[in-house]
Structures are given as C-alpha cells and as structure tokens.
Automatic annotation (TrEMBL):
Protein name: Response regulator transcription factor
Record domain Response regulatory: where: 3-116
4-aspartylphosphate PTM sites in chain numbering: D52
Domain called OmpR/PhoB-type: residue spans: 128-224
Entry keywords, A to Z: DNA-binding, Phosphoprotein, Transcription, Transcription regulation
Length: 224
C-alpha cells in the first residue's frame, strides 16, 4: 500500500484530504509542524507528497526545491493559486503535477495514480491496486469486482470490506477487524450494518457468478 504525505497548513483541508486518501486505501501521513519540514519528510519516507504552496514560514515552491536536492519522490502541488505562472513555477521547481483548489476528488485520485505510474511505479501501482483470488478480481482504482467478462461496481464501504478480505485471502477476517477498519476511516458502521453490507456484496458476487466466494465462519468472521 502506498504512503502519501500531506503538507497542508489548513486543518480542515488537511483532514479532508487525509480521509479521502484513506478511503482510497492509501496510507497517509500529515505534517502539522512547519518549522523543520525536511527531516519530517525523510522520517515519513513517502511514495508521494501532496504539497501546498502557501505555507507558514516558507513557500511550497522553495520546499519542493529543497526536497529535489536529495530526493526524486513524486510531488503534486495542491493549491489555491490558479495563475498559469504559478503552475509553471511549480513544475520548474520540480513538481510532477499541479492541481488547484477546490479540487474534484475523483480527478485528484486519478492524477495521483497517474503520477505514480509516470514516475516509474507502474507495475507496483498495478499490483497494489488489483487482487485476484479464485478467478475473481478486485480492482481498487475503479471500485469493481470482475469475473471473466462480467463486472459489478462496489460502494465505498463495500470496497473497503472487499479490500480487507482480498488482501488477507485464505485467512479468516473477524467482524471486529472489519468494523474497526471502517470506524478508523470514519465510515460509521455497526454489527448489523456490516451484515447488510456482506449480504449486498454477496448479491453482487452472484451477478458475476461468484456467489460462494465469501464464506462465513460462525463466531469467527469471514474469509475468501
């Protein structure tokens, strides 16, 4: 799973970005102390950085230039500055992409995946976003389950549940683990709601001829 570092001083935008990326199944770190940013970046060892330009005490453009002295980590500017010259400066300082606020969430996620592929992580990105088990494929990028030529779309909650099951294929995943994961990502769900979601996932699996993929282990949880 890829690790993304958010460097954004607005706490609301920072929290919004963190939730969006975690729901897209990224690992996410944030920086809230802007006095010594470079050591924090080095400690986080991210696969990609989302960087604001207007930061307290420093410019994101200068920070990008500092990062480029020692690292080729992909950097996407996410900023309220929409002037074409600002975008040009960002790319000249070493940025890999430039997105203006307010951003469109699906577009931001698509651009992140594109930058990771473009910067030499194509096979790793493909591997981390696709799981295949017993002929059934879970694709995290488009949120689908596929079997042969058949495909079905998943909701955000269903996608996270399927990710937990596919990433631990052949192992029992407890109901408590599934609920804890959804709660950690601020998707509010209880035991009864989990049962409803599992039923809906099974119904979608039936549409693609994989209705018996998810097994229930009474008192233990689920496995595929």
């Amino acid at each position: 799973m890829y690790r993304i570092l958010i460097i954004e001083d607005d706490p609301d935008i920072r929290a919004e970005l963190k939730l969006l990326l975690e729901n897209a199944l990224y690992q996410v770190d944030t920086i809230i102390d802007f006095t010594k940013v470079i050591p924090q970046i080095q400690n986080a060892s991210p696969d990609l950085i989302l960087l604001d330009i207007q930061l307290p005490g420093n410019s994101g453009l200068n920070l990008c230039q500092e990062i480029r002295r020692t690292s080729e980590v992909p950097i996407i500017f996410v900023t309220g500055l929409s002037n074409p010259m600002d975008e040009l400066n960002g790319m000249m300082m070493g940025g890999d992409d430039y997105i203006t606020k307010p951003y469109h969430a699906p577009l931001l996620l698509a651009r992140i995946a594109a930058v990771l592929k473009r910067t030499g992580h194509k096979n790793e990105v493909d591997d981390s976003y696709q799981f295949v088990w017993k002929g059934c494929e879970l694709n995290l990028l488009d949120g689908t389950l596929k079997h042969g030529k058949l495909s079905t779309e998943l909701t955000k909650n269903e996608l996270r549940i399927c990710y937990n099951l596919f990433s631990r294929a052949g192992q029992i995943v407890s109901r408590e683990d599934l609920i804890d994961d959804l709660w950690d990502n601020q998707i509010f769900i209880d035991d009864n709601t989990l049962s409803v979601h599992i039923t809906r996932i099974r119904s979608k699996l039936k549409e693609i001829g994989m209705e018996h993929l998810i097994q229930t282990r009474r008192g233990q949880g689920y496995l595929i």
